[in-house]
């Protein structure tokens, strides 16, 4: 629309300018023509008037000559002298005919007619024009225009007849009629009219020339007569009018040609602009692929060139932006955003799986070998995982050492097989700077649509499954196994925890720890229990991971600590020498108020610091080793005991643990189970006990279930044992009875 109007505007401006210029030219021509016509008219009239006057003079002289010839005729003079009237009459008659004079008269010196060719006159009559006679007597001859008695006008010439003295006058009259006027008009080129001043109507008139508008000049003749000389203005104007007509024609043709030309030119200017604006619209719609149409090599071409450059630059910039938004800069893999977006491809009918993969010990490697090595390790892992991506699948790095696969259409079995392939691939050692790094990984799998309908839920559930896998050292875990409840029930559980804490649904169970050397119960571990009014007892493994993820653990732990310290105070007051162990989560260890809170509790309940022990997992240490160490130092400074829980599951080395202010090492249950059957487990436990002792650490065996295990541990120098084989977790009240019974059994 706007381009159309641009095209029209260009054409209108061009044609308008041309019309303006041509109009000026036309006006100028018209104006000068009018002036030329006026001047020409005046000039022609002046020339014609002069010619007219010359003609009159010439006529008169011819008449005079003719009269002179007549007066020189001897026979004529004789006839006059002898008053021979018939002869005189015949002579003037003949002479008059010869010289085409219509009137011939001979008058005596007395003013009386001697002879006349006029029928009305007769000899003896007085000469009709005495004024002419008087003028002739004064100057020798005279001439003038006179009307005869018949009313007609004549040019009359009067000359004397000398013999040798004047004996008579001869007068000749020439008829001034329309023919005379025509002759004069033919020579002068003007219309000739003879009029008597003060009377209407012409005495003689030349044939009328065309036109209605005349320029005229009045030439006074004698005898009250004047000649009106007329020039038809149209006659002068005609060539100019013709010229102006032609000019107008030329202008009309020029304007038409120019209009067509400028419309074409405007079209040629506007077309590439139109094409550019169409291209701009395509770019606005995000289509950068289509190249610009070829443009002329002028300014518009330059514009098109810059435009094309802009297009490619915007395209590459958009690609960069998309890269930044969707690609993980470290590994070049799709990022979390891209992963969540790709999830939209899955259809509930075909199903699919979201698989989260996490590298074990990554934080340790990152801290021990530096972030640079950590980054390269992540790139290496990405390189190992990338070729495994099945068609239609995707591999993304979510954050840190967390990778995720999207498996389109995969069911439980296919997902498990794929997870096995992933773990096998990661078992290949990675070599960085000549250093071999054995990496292991865990896999958590959530199935679509069974475990959730949206990507965020599935990722969360897969991450929970991953945590379970790590805890169980299983390598692979499915979301269904983490609690075995549908996702929404787990979510309602999280919401329920706050209410449960306020409602006092949480309790602590205490599991005894037996000193193998003395055979005495030296401590108990406080374990959290949830007595849910509808669901019954809920195991900590089913809600603590959520409490950790949602941060609610920060509210549970203070309650656990206070309950534990309060219980320790009660036993202390009862004279029982039993320490209480409480478990800490990663978040608790990173809590800056932890140390102050523990000291406050010990002071409030007046419990000796050695009566409290805090159990920390290796992974809690690995998240932020520096901060963890600072907080451990603070706790150790209070005099409380610190214990490494589930030792052997993580990859923290003894050498690393030695740098921490810990007192106790709790060997994970998985090492103790079947210790009597598996020589390998036995060897690991034996050497760990030895090394721990060398480092001054107390060794606790977890999950001791059989007397054989208990015996083996005692024989191999383990300090403390804990497990169902000794005593199950129980309430504080139950523990009192149990302790009495236990003392009785040992004694017995
Ligand atoms: P943990 O600290 O390693 O606690 C030992 C777990 O092993 C307890 O499970 C205990 O009941 C179980 N156990 C003890 N002896 C045996 C045995 O002979 N055989 C078998 N099969 N199991 C045995 P529980 O109470 O279900 O606790 C599980 C985990 O929950 C704990 O592992 C601990 O990590 C966490 N947890 C428990 N209470 C708390 C708490 O108050 N705070 C925090 N942060 N975590 C807690
Ligand atoms: Mg524990
Ligand atoms: Mg443990």
List descriptors:
binds ligand C2E; TIM Barrel; eight-stranded mixed β-barrel; 3 domains; 25 strands; 748 residues; 24 helices; Alpha-Beta Plaits; binds magnesium ion; rod-shaped; single chain; Beta-Lactamase; alpha/beta; five-stranded antiparallel β-sheet
Walk me through what this model shows:
- There is one protein chain.
- The chain has 748 residues and is of the alpha/beta class.
- The chain has three domains: 51-230, PAS domain (Beta-Lactamase, 2-Layer Sandwich), CATH 3.30.450.20; 336-481, Reverse transcriptase/Diguanylate cyclase domain (Alpha-Beta Plaits, 2-Layer Sandwich); 511-742, Alpha-Beta Barrel (TIM Barrel), CATH 3.20.20.450.
- Helices cover 53% and strands 21% of the residues.
- The strands form five sheets. An eight-stranded mixed barrel has the order 17-18-20-21-22-23-24-25, surrounded by five helices. The protein has a five-stranded antiparallel beta sheet with strand order 2-1-5-4-3, sandwiched between helices.
- Helix 12 (455-472) links the parallel strand 15 and strand 16 (476-478).
- It is rod-shaped and about 220 Å long.
- The mean pLDDT is 87.
- Ligand C2E binds at residues 511, 527-528, 539-541, 544, 560, 583-585, 615, 645-646, 669, 702-705, 722-725, 729.
């Amino acid at each position: 629309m706007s381009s159309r109007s641009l095209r029209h505007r260009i054409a209108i401006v061009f044609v308008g300018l041309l019309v303006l210029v041509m109009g000026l030219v036309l006006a100028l021509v018209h104006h000068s023509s009018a002036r030329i016509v006026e001047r020409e008219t005046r000039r022609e009239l002046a020339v014609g008037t002069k010619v007219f006057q010359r003609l009159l003079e010439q006529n008169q002289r011819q008449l005079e000559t003719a009269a002179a010839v007549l007066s020189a005729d001897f026979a004529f003079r004789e006839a006059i002298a002898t008053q021979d009237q018939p002869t005189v009459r015949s002579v003037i008659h003949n002479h008059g005919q010869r010289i085409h004079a219509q009137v011939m008269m001979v008058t005596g010196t007395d003013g009386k007619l001697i002879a006349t060719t006029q029928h009305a006159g007769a000899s003896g009559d007085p000469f009709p024009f005495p004024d002419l006679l008087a003028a002739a007597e004064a100057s020798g001859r005279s001439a003038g225009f006179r009307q005869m008695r018949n009313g007609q006008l004549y040019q009359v010439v009067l000359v004397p007849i000398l013999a040798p003295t004047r004996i008579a006058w001869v007068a000749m009259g020439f008829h001034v009629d329309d023919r005379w006027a025509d002759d004069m008009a033919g020579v002068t080129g003007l219309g000739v009219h003879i009029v008597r001043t003060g009377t209407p109507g012409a005495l003689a008139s030349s044939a009328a020339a065309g036109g209605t508008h005349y320029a005229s000049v009045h030439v006074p003749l004698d005898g009250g007569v004047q000649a009106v000389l007329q020039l038809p203005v149209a006659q002068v104007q005609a060539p100019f009018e013709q010229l102006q007509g032609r000019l107008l024609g030329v202008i009309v043709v020029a304007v038409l040609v120019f209009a067509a030309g400028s419309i074409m030119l405007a079209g040629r200017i506007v077309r590439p602009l139109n094409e550019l604006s169409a291209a701009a619209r395509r770019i606005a719609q995000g289509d950068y692929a289509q190249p610009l149409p070829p443009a002329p090599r002028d300014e518009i071409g330059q514009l098109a060139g810059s435009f094309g450059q802009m297009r490619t630059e915007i395209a590459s910039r958009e690609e960069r932006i998309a890269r930044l938004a969707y690609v993980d800069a470290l590994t070049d893999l799709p990022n979390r955003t891209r992963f969540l977006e790709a999830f939209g491809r899955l259809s509930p009918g075909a199903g699919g799986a979201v698989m989260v993969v996490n590298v074990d010990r990554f934080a340790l490697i990152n801290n021990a070998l530096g972030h640079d090595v950590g980054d390269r390790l992540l790139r290496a892992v990405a390189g190992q995982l990338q070729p495994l991506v099945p068609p239609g699948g995707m591999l993304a790095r979510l954050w840190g050492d967390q990778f995720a696969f999207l498996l389109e259409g995969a069911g439980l079995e296919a997902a498990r097989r794929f997870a096995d392939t992933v773990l096998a691939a990661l078992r290949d050692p990675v070599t960085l700077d000549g250093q071999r790094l054995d990496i292991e990984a865990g896999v958590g799998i959530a199935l679509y649509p069974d475990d959730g309908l949206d990507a965020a839920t599935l990722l969360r559930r897969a991450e929970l499954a991953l945590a379970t896998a790590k805890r169980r050292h299983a390598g692979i875990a499915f979301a269904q196994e983490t609690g075995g409840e549908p996702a929404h029930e787990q979510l309602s559980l999280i919401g329920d925890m706050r209410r449960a804490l306020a409602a006092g649904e949480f309790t602590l169970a205490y599991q005894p720890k037996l000193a193998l050397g003395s055979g005495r119960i030296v401590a108990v571990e406080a374990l959290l229990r949830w007595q849910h009014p509808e669901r019954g007892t809920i195991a900590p493994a089913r809600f603590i991971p959520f409490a950790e993820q949602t941060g609610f653990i920060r509210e549970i732990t203070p309650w656990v600590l206070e309950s534990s310290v309060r219980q320790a105070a009660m036993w202390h007051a009862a004279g029982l020498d039993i320490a209480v162990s409480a478990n800490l989560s990663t978040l608790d260890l990173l809590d800056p108020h932890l140390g102050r809170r523990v000291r406050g509790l010990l002071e409030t309940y007046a419990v000796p610091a050695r009566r409290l022990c805090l159990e920390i997992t290796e992974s809690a240490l690995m998240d932020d080793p520096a901060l963890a160490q600072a907080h451990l130092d603070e706790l150790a400074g209070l005099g409380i005991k610190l214990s490494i829980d589930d030792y052997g599951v993580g990859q923290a080395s003894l050498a690393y643990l030695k740098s921490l202010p810990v007192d106790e090492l709790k060997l994970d249950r998985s090492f103790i189970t079947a210790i009597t059957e598996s020589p390998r487990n036995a060897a690991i436990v034996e050497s760990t006990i030895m090394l721990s002792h060398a480092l001054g650490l107390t060794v606790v065996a977890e999950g001791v279930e059989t007397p054989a295990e208990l015996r083996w541990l005692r024989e191999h120098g383990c300090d403390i044992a804990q497990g169902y084989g000794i005593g199950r977790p129980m309430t504080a009240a139950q523990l009192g009875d149990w302790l009495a019974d236990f003392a009785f059994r040992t004694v017995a």
